[in-house]
Fold this protein.
Amino acid sequence: MELAQVKIVTDSTADLPLEIREKLGIRMVPLKVHFGKETFLDSVDIISSEFYTKLSQSQELPTTSQPSPVDFMEVYKELCDQPDTSVISIHLSSALSGTYQSAMLAKSLLDNQTNVVLVDSKSACYGLGLLVIAAAEAAQAGKSVDEIQALVQDLRNKTRIYFILDTLEYLYKGGRIGKASAMFGSLLNIKPILTLDDGGEVDSVDKVRGHKKAVKRIIELLQKDFEGQRINVGIGHSQSRDGAEEIYHLINEQFQVNQHSYTDLGPVIGTHTGPGTLAVFVTPAT
């Protein structure tokens, strides 16, 4: 008799490199990015570098859309057809996208619904990615569905996420802020610092003038969150590797860092935040 196994599914907004997905056996269902009449599968037909080049050349802001229920069903059915297999499907915050709802609809159409467990990460980008990696590592270690769910929930509660936007242009183009706010912020070199709250909604932490002050403010926030603790750090960036390395070195000077990694912020988040965005994802080291 084969041992029961747990397979992990996520979506492309987790910003997980292909090599990590392959190493940990993670299945990824892509969202879609639309430039006019052109449609691309996120992280399949278009990667971050190609997206930001295309974004700089486009007259109109691209749009994004979630996977269809059929996209999820195909993956769930393939995995659940394997003997003694359960699926944990972890996705972008339902407050930010219809992706989780699409996965729910796919599950409702399955014959063996009990074999699929859905998790609303209430997170995004590598904040989601860190949860998925932890789940996949636990699955490979033979943990049960309940144990993995508990692990993901605990890690989500302990994760802190901070974004620095280089420009307000894309928030304005996407209808998130008004023209006056965008113009005023640009003139004063305002750098918003954003986070995701407990409900998975985007929330403003602070607004400071200039990049250096924004980075300093993030260090202060992390000191409040993790003082005296060893931490794991992920730095996400959109065409700003130098900025990502700079903020990591500053964090490393102030904290005992157990692990650190860099990731490219993908097309879906990039549509709303634009190039030059930096994102810091921190969890306590276990």
User: Anything to note?
Assistant: Residues 176-180 have pLDDT under 50 and may be disordered.
